[in-house]
């Protein structure tokens, strides 16, 4: 076995705020995908073939009628276009920004075979929805007459918000409980700032609340089985959409060193910072993980001024959770990607708890379908280490309340029905999903339809 290269532990960690000028921060964290102009949107819309039985609509988890909304853009009917989108996906504005369209609707666009370039469905969707929300009358739907029924929703993320909005349109009163100071879930706290600049998550929530009948109670945590039982008793139905609150641990020595943190916490802090120049960043950063969160953390570390950023994954590229487009985006921004490396130890320096100095990795390969170390090792120096190896439900209250779990998440049927009467679940906390914003929206929407049928008999 080769001897690992040990970082110079005598040198102090290089972590600083304000590595860049104010103008540079603004430039780097500007919108990564600028909006279409009216002319650009028109030209792009006219590339659509308006296919019958369009594969793009089938590929959309929320079943948006893609040809229909694009045709309305081509006809100059942006309000009608937005209505077609939001009828199927009430969070269509955010999904247009963060949905991996390259793997969904755009992946099956017929234009791929003719021109090797799909219609820019995501950008056209954003164009229509943004235009509506910036108009004098952004709320295009009306609420049905009040039914007197009350529904509780736990979690103000995409699933919970979609559920609440769909129920409110039917005339039900909905109270949404969330543990964070702001509603939005991952849309507010868990996405890269360059994907959702301009506080769009809160703008979208204000649009959702405009339908009426929705109350949001923040700073509320589900901590006891008694709380859940009280919600079941006090409301006609309950929807659980609390996401995944606990991050997985690496389980290696040195994980408790200063400078080691969860990538989701790093991203949340960055999203809530009004002034990016106040955020300290290491000169050398190592991000462990291969998903979208890892990419967001790695790219934003580079944008904050880190000189070297390594993103390290234990398997090959094809197994990474981040799409090919996201991987390319990381490399475009100077992130160095590594595969087939598993963390063995986080190295530190200094007295007491100490500060991270580097990470030692073991090279791996597949033998009989299982990962096996090759005997080679490599060490990357690091002032900061960000862990992005996935999240789990981690709330014992659910099992204590009698909810059936599957692979650590809530077991449901296709409509989100749980084994407890009057309780539904959706989003990342629900077993068997893809952990996508757009899928969470569909979960919330379908559960709302089932809840409406249940409480109206």
Could you characterize the architecture of this molecule?
The chain is α/β, with parallel strands linked by helices and 457 residues long. It has 3 domains: 15-29 and 248-390, 3-Layer(bba) Sandwich (FAD/NAD(P)-binding domain); 38-133, Orthogonal Bundle (Fumarate Reductase Iron-sulfur Protein, Chain B, domain 2), CATH 1.10.1060; 150-245 and 393-455, FAD/NAD(P)-binding domain (3-Layer(bba) Sandwich), CATH 3.50.50. The chain is built from 17 helices and 19 strands. The chain has a 5-stranded parallel sheet with strand order 4-3-2-5-19, with helices on both faces. A 5-stranded parallel sheet has the order 7-15-9-10-11. The protein is globular, with a radius of gyration of 23 Å.
Provide the fold topology.
Elements: E1 15-16, H1 22-28, H2 38-45, H3 55-59, H4 66-74, H5 78-88, H6 92-98, H7 111-115, H8 121-133, E2 150-154, H9 158-169, E3 173-177, H10 186-189, H11 200-209, E4 214-217, H12 225-234, E5 237-240, E6 246-247, E7 260-262, H13 263-272, E8 281-282, E9 284-288, H14 292-303, E10 308-312, H15 324-332, E11 336-338, E12 341-349, E13 355-367, E14 370-381, E15 384-387, E16 391-392, H16 396-400, E17 405-406, E18 409-410, E19 423-425, H17 437-455
Parallel strand pairs: 2-3, 2-5, 3-4, 5-19, 7-15, 9-10, 9-15, 10-11
Antiparallel strand pairs: 1-8, 6-16, 12-13, 13-14, 17-18
């Amino acid at each position: 076995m080769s001897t690992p290269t040990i970082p110079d532990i005598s040198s102090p960690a290089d972590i600083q705020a304000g590595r860049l000028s104010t103008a540079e921060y603004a430039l780097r964290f500007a919108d990564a995908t600028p909006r279409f102009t009216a002319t650009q949107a028109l030209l792009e819309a006219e590339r659509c073939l308006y296919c019958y039985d369009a594969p793009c609509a089938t590929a959309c988890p929320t079943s948006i009628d893609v040809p229909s909304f694009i045709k309305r853009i081509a006809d100059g009917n942006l309000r009608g276009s937005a209505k077609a989108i939001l009828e199927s996906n009430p969070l269509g504005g955010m999904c247009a920004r963060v949905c991996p369209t390259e793997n969904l609707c755009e992946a099956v666009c017929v234009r791929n075979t003719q021109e090797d370039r799909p219609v820019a469905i995501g950008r056209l969707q954003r164009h229509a929805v943004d235009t509506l929300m910036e108009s004098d009358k952004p709320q295009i739907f009306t609420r049905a007459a009040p039914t007197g029924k009350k529904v509780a929703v736990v979690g103000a993320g995409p699933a919970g918000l979609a559920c609440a909005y769909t129920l409110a349109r039917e005339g039900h009163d909905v109270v949404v409980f969330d543990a964070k100071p702001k509603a939005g879930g991952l849309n507010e706290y868990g996405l890269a700032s360059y994907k959702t600049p301009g506080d769009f998550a809160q703008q979208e929530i204000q649009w959702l609340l405009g339908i009426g009948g929705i109350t949001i109670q923040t700073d509320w945590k589900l901590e006891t089985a008694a709380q859940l039982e009280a919600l079941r008793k006090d409301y006609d139905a309950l929807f659980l959409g609390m996401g995944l609150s606990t991050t997985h641990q690496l389980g290696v020595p040195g994980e408790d060193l200063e400078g080691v943190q969860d990538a989701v916490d790093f991203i949340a802090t960055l999203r809530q910072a009004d002034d990016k120049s106040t955020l300290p960043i290491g000169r050398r950063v190592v991000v462990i993980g291969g998903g979208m969160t890892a990419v967001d953390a790695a790219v934003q570390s580079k944008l904050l001024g880190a000189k070297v950023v390594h993103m390290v994954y234990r398997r090959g590229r094809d197994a990474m959770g981040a799409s090919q487009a996201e991987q390319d985006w990381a490399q475009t921004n100077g992130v160095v990607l590594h595969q087939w490396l598993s963390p063995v130890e986080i190295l530190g320096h200094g007295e007491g708890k100490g500060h991270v100095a580097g990470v030692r990795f073991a090279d791996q390969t597949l033998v009989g379908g299982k990962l096996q170390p090759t005997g080679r090792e490599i060490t990357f120096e690091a002032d900061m280490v960000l862990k992005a190896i996935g999240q789990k439900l981690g709330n014992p209250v659910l099992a204590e309340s009698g909810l059936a779990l599957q692979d650590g998440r809530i077991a449901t049927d296709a409509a989100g029905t749980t084994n407890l009467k009057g309780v539904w679940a959706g989003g990342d906390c629900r077993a068997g999903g893809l952990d996508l914003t757009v899928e969470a929206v569909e979960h919330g929407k379908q559960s709302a339809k089932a809840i409406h049928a249940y409480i109206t008999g």
